[in-house]
Design a protein that fits this description.
By secondary structure, the protein is of the alpha+beta class. Helices cover 41% and strands 28% of the residues. 20% of the residues are buried. Its EC number is 2.7.13.3.
């Protein structure tokens, strides 16, 4: 139901209606419930005026107790008590027009709206009508009240002396009051303008300006005051227009326009406009409530507002909230004392910023009424300059008071200014320094340095070019103690006279430290020359120090290397190791100077021998500047041993591989014969023999698994594995592994919790990573007591994928963690009373680690201890197949 109309949509099978010989079907239960929920009386009648169906409101409206008293009756008899329709019957009108008809009818003292809507058969013939009876008594009463209010409104408007007219949304004039009619007659304009647009009625109006003003009022729903100038019959007419929106149900439908002819006032004001146009100050006239009655053109230069935008507005609304109280008190004093007042305050400009203005005002009579005349000047720039000056002085004092240096201004042999740190460093109180006569400050300088300082002070006072701006001297404090000080000085203007700005630093501790450093350097050289390691100090890419061990390793003399640069060092390094060495050195310099960098490389001696070098580098401070401390060790012998160990490891891996291959042949035979006995002769063997053969078979399977792991381990150790990476979905692979082991999970009665993101796409060899995931998941199932919880989780980072398998199993202690990823690093659990599966080769995690590292990832374990579960994690780089 909307706006008093009820719309009923009924979809029926007309074939069924035909089968029922054209009679109407009864509504479904849902339709009846909807009808009964309506407050209006709704009933259906056929062409014989018989009621076919009705709702509860109809029963109540007709004064009946149930529907049976209504269904089948003629509605005229029930509604009007007549055997024929009343005059204007909507049903009869509907039958003639074939569309909805409505009648307002008084029933028992209430105004009722009775409507009849036709419904048709499939051939488009009217079958009957839907009657709806709505009580509109309250609505009619409200409309009568509105008409009464409108009459009062017109009476009030007609009694006003200001010309008033009303326009609608199309800017058509809908009403004029008598004052407007008289004003039009005075200007020889026809008052017959109702129904015309304002531009048809007043062709002299500027279309763009007037249209935009009305558009603004209709859209903003706020009052707008403007002024205008028009030429009518060679007369210049000035008007002030106040446009007031009429808001109904949230929308502006009409606008009341109040017109004031201000031609006389404007003519008077023009006499002094020329006088004030060239003034710097803005002239404003306000009433005692603070409303602007006039502002001079300077308002635009000062605030950015036009005169039209300011006139009629209250001046207090522009004032900064923090200044409003001050302005109000000044205004009250003006009204009370009737004397000129002046003040400074902040006011809002058109850009939304506050500017500082200076205003002076007095009360004067204008047109017989007392008004406030004000002269307002923008003093923002002056205030900003004053503020900057104060801030500058304040900053200088704050900086000097907080400075760790003593700062003083020396002029004519006396200190005109000095900070607290100056007192502390010099060792005299403020009163004592202020009491010094010209040149007396020299008494606070050591006698051996006094002439030197006096000469520098004289040169600075005279502006000599050879005057030193920085020097050191010894001072004597009030207690007679000698201390080292350093002075930085500069000639400045102070109170328009030449002066010396002095910054003095206490360097006594630094001097002591320098002496200790000299001693420390001597000690360092003594230790370094005795060291078995080579020690080298590089600064600014030049060799600053080298000990004898370095010279011995590379077969050079001190004279040959003392002037070496970084380029000379690079020349003795093997070309294949230069790239890695440069990268490591760059990382050390750019990342963290506190980290000691370590790298191994090959270098040539003077005679051309190739040596392996272990180098440790660290950024240090050497003689007050950053340097690089390098220690080196000749590890050539160690490298040769390592090479031998690598050969032995290769031989070991090859031996394991061949032994494993040799073991596979007899294992295949044993397993085959075991299967043969179990399949062909199981009915001829007793249980003991069958169990024994079964154990033999299981032993063969375990040995096969062990041999497979040994071969896989040997293959990975050989470093000959070439990965066949393709772009794969790690999430899909993990789900495959879980599905493959679901029976094992079910056997242990574990619950699996998958927290995997979709489309974890990166490049890896599917079979290899499948083995890693299967190994980790199998371990979690085996080493978690029954009824355990296993959680598989993935995290996608910017450059890698992280996969973790977490269980609430038996966990690991620190000692076990160290063995876990090593060959045959199995942790023996058998016989410890743990409800776990303890078989395995001890190579699964070792193989998994090798595979993950081959892919450029990492694998690690997290466990807080025994019976606290464990989490195995591994990462894979996030790369595309093209990379």
């Amino acid at each position: 139901m909307q706006n008093g109309d009820i719309h009923i949509l009924r979809i029926s099978d007309y074939k069924q209606q035909k089968n029922d010989k054209g009679t109407l079907n009864h509504s479904t239960t849902l339709e009846q419930a909807i009808l009964d929920a309506m407050s209006e009386a709704v009933f259906l009648i056929d062409l014989d005026n018989k009621i076919l169906q009705c709702n509860k409101s109809t029963v109540k409206f007709l004064g009946k107790s149930k529907k049976d008293e209504i269904i089948g009756q003629t509605y005229w008899e029930l509604l009007h008590g007549t055997s024929s329709p009343v005059e204007g019957c909507p049903f009869m009108s509907m039958c003639e027009s074939g569309q909805r008809e409505t009648l307002i009818y008084n029933v028992m003292g209430r105004e009722m709206e009775i409507s009849a809507d036709p419904f048709f058969d499939e051939e488009g013939k009217i079958m009957g009508a839907v009657h709806i009876i709505t009580d509109i008594t309250d609505q009619k009463q409200m409309e009568d009240q509105i008409k009464g209010l409108e009459e009062k409104y017109r009476t009030i408007v007609n009694s006003l002396s200001d010309p008033i007219h009303v326009v609608d949304k199309n800017l058509k004039i809908t009403f004029l009051n008598p004052a407007m009619t008289n004003w039009l007659a005075k200007l020889n304009i026809s008052p017959n303008i109702v129904g015309k647009t304002i531009f048809e009625a007043f062709p002299f109006l500027v279309y763009e300006k007037v249209f935009s003003e009305y558009e603004k009022v209709f859209q903003s729903k706020t009052r707008l005051t403007s002024s205008g100038k028009s030429v009518i019959e060679n007369k210049i007419i000035f008007t002030e227009l106040i446009k007031i929106p009429i808001i109904h149900e949230g929308c502006v439908n009409q606008v009341i326009t109040v017109l004031r002819d201000i031609t006389e006032q404007i003519n008077i004001s023009n006499k002094f406009e020329t006088v004030i146009e060239n003034l710097i100050d803005m002239i404003a006239i306000l009433d005692f409530k603070g409303e602007f009655l006039y502002v001079s053109p300077q308002v635009y230069n000062i605030t950015g507002f036009t005169q039209e935008e300011i006139i009629g507005k209250n001046g207090f609304t522009f004032i900064h909230p923090n200044d409003l109280d001050k302005v109000l008190k000044t205004m009250a004093r003006l009204l009370k004392e009737r004397k000129r007042v002046s003040l400074e305050y902040r006011t809002l400009n058109k850009e939304g910023n506050y500017i500082i203005v200076s205003a002076s005002g007095r009360i004067a009579k204008i047109d017989g009424e007392e008004k406030i005349i004000m002269a307002i000047r923008d003093i923002s720039k002056r205030k900003i300059s004053e503020q900057k000056l104060r801030e500058s002085e304040e900053k200088f004092r704050n900086i000097t008071d907080q400075s760790l240096m003593g700062i003083g201004i020396l002029q004519d042999g006396v200190f005109r200014y000095f900070n607290k740190q100056f007192e502390k460093i010099i060792g005299f109180s403020r009163e004592e320094i202020n009491g010094w006569s010209s040149g007396e400050f020299l008494e606070a300088i050591h006698p051996d340095d006094r002439d030197f300082v006096r000469e520098q002070a004289r040169k600075k006072q005279q502006g000599a070019k050879d005057a030193l701006t920085q020097y050191q001297f010894r001072g004597i404090n009030q207690e007679g103690k000698t201390e080292w000080r350093e002075v930085h000085s500069k000639s400045i203007k102070y109170s328009n006279k030449l002066a010396d700005l002095i910054a003095v630093v206490d360097i006594n501790e630094r001097k002591i430290a320098e002496e200790k450093l000299i001693q420390s350097e001597d000690n360092f050289r003594t230790i370094a020359e005795q060291a078995l390691m080579g020690i080298l100090i590089m600064q600014d890419d030049k060799v600053e120090y080298v000990n004898s061990t370095v010279l011995q390793i590379f077969e050079y003399s001190f004279e040959e290397v003392k002037n070496w640069s970084m380029k000379d060092l690079i020349n003795i390094i093997h070309p294949d190791d230069l790239k890695l060495l440069r990268k490591s050195r760059l990382e050390m310099r750019t990342n963290n100077s506190n980290i000691t960098a370590y790298y191994s490389f090959r270098a040539f001696t003077k005679s051309g021998k190739l040596r392996w070098i272990d180098q440790f580098s660290k950024i240090i401070v050497y003689k007050g500047r950053q340097a690089e401390l390098v220690t080196i060790m000749d590890i050539t012998d160690k490298k040769e041993v390592e090479q031998e160990l690598i050969k032995l490891s290769t031989i070991k891996s090859e031996l394991l591989r061949r032994t494993s291959h040799e073991l596979k042949t007899p294992l295949v035979s044993i397993k085959g014969f075991s299967n043969l006995l179990l399949e062909l002769y199981s009915d001829k063997l007793d249980d003991y023999v069958l169990n024994t053969i079964g154990e033999i078979k299981q032993g063969c399977i375990r040995l096969e698994d062990l041999i497979r792991d040994i071969l896989k381990s040997a293959e990975l150790d050989s470093e000959s594995v070439q990965l066949k990476k393709t772009s794969e979905d790690l999430s899909f692979l993990i789900r495959v592994c879980v599905n493959e082991l679901k029976e094992f999970v079910k056997l242990r009665n574990h619950s699996i919790n998958l927290q995997l993101q979709d489309d974890l796409i990166t490049c890896f060899e599917k079979e290899q990573i499948h083995q890693v995931v299967s190994n980790l998941l199998t371990n979690a199932i085996k080493f978690t007591p029954i009824n355990g919880v296993i959680e598989l989780k993935s995290i996608k980072k910017e450059d890698s994928l992280i996969f973790s398998i977490k269980d609430n199993g038996i966990g690991f202690i620190d000692e076990e963690k160290e063995r876990l990823f090593k060959q045959f690093g199995k942790i023996e659990r058998y016989g410890q009373g743990l409800d776990i599966v303890s078989d395995g080769s001890g190579l699964g995690l070792y193989i998994s680690k090798k595979i993950i590292e081959l892919h450029g990832g990492k694998i690690w374990l997290e466990s807080e201890g025994r019976s606290k579960g464990s989490t195995f994690n591994f990462t894979l780089p996030l790369i595309s197949e093209s990379n």
